């Protein structure tokens, strides 16, 4: 595979942009290779500046449920663009998208749109604090909730990859209200409640996707709900990644546990920058201008982004089976790779939730971040490079989740599984 043009592009980018990238994890640092500079995405495929093509299992880290350049989303965006890029005034498109979101989520009566997942979570935390009049929050090691100060504590994703979960530049004073618990471990949450009677909310990725894919156990989430109720604490499901990917109706529809606040992102923007947070009316009434909790955004509810999101969610509404179909494919993919690995005595743990998939080179089940961290990172790097060389683009860190889109066919998955066999063969020299 020739990557000369990407290498050259990366050198130039590094002279102008820190690390050559605008978001750390895409730098390919943890796999030790050069990031590919992308020129185009079409359906299931990505094309780089050297003209190489890849089946894309990253899908822009989640948003592209319908693949690249989906016709309907593209047409909606172009139409919106022709009417103006931004007004800073209310539009009908916001209400239409809000109607869809409220219809999909039992726990959401009202929703506010922002421009990123980070913003959604940051605002939702402020809302939870404003509503309860309390300061402390509980988060889980290995869960990533964007890069706002209070949440950059033992976070997953890029923060885990780079081994500096608490970032310099975040004053200790800003994180002193963030209590840490262990994922899937209710005793660790009980300890937080024993340590503080001032907990505004417990924030969790109910289907964690930032330490690899690690879904929470149902019993754990039920116990969490009960604890929150006992202490008058709000339960916040961060579904920026899992929303509309694991299920059309949220993790609450899979687990039977209803959160108080939900944060969304990625898929609801159809590929454009959109985030959102929603809750029952009583909580949302605290938000400015209805209530006293301030939150705002010049480009919030941007008409082009709303058009993309609306079209993506309408596609989902009109074809509710999509997530099940994608889950069958995602399962075929990871089971196929796992069987190929087994031929070469490589142990693998696999998981899927809807169109999300994950795998660990680990001989034990993964329930939390410390389990995930015991996976074979060197083997993962070799696997990633080998797959890339054969035209299969996977997330470049063992702490990330993979994504299937409707553009990825069974034949493509078969090809990817075959390639994985060849890669394992090469790695193990059999
Ligand atoms: N929460 C979760 C669960 C996420 O996965 C992410 C991003 N991967 C975020 C929040 C932050 O979203 P953004 O990158 O759009 O700011």
SSE inventory with pairings:
Elements: H1 4-16, E1 38-42, E2 45-48, E3 53-56, H2 71-82, H3 92-104, E4 110-114, H4 117-132, E5 136-140, H5 157-161, H6 172-175, E6 178-181, H7 186-195, E7 199-204, E8 207-208, E9 214-215, H8 218-231, E10 234-239, H9 251-255, E11 261-264, E12 275-279, H10 281-284, H11 303-318, H12 322-343, E13 349-353, E14 356-360, H13 369-372, H14 377-389, E15 392-393, E16 402-403, H15 410-428
Parallel strand pairs: 3-15, 5-6, 5-7, 7-10, 10-11
Antiparallel strand pairs: 1-2, 2-3, 4-12, 8-9, 11-12, 13-14, 14-16
Helix pairs in contact: 2-11, 3-11, 7-8, 12-15, 14-15
Subunit structure: Homodimer.
InterPro entries: 4pyrrol_synth_GluAld_NH2Trfase (IPR004639), Aminotrans_3 (IPR005814), Aminotrans_3_PPA_site (IPR049704), PyrdxlP-dep_Trfase (IPR015424), PyrdxlP-dep_Trfase_major (IPR015421), PyrdxlP-dep_Trfase_small (IPR015422)
Family: Belongs to the class-III pyridoxal-phosphate-dependent aminotransferase family. HemL subfamily.
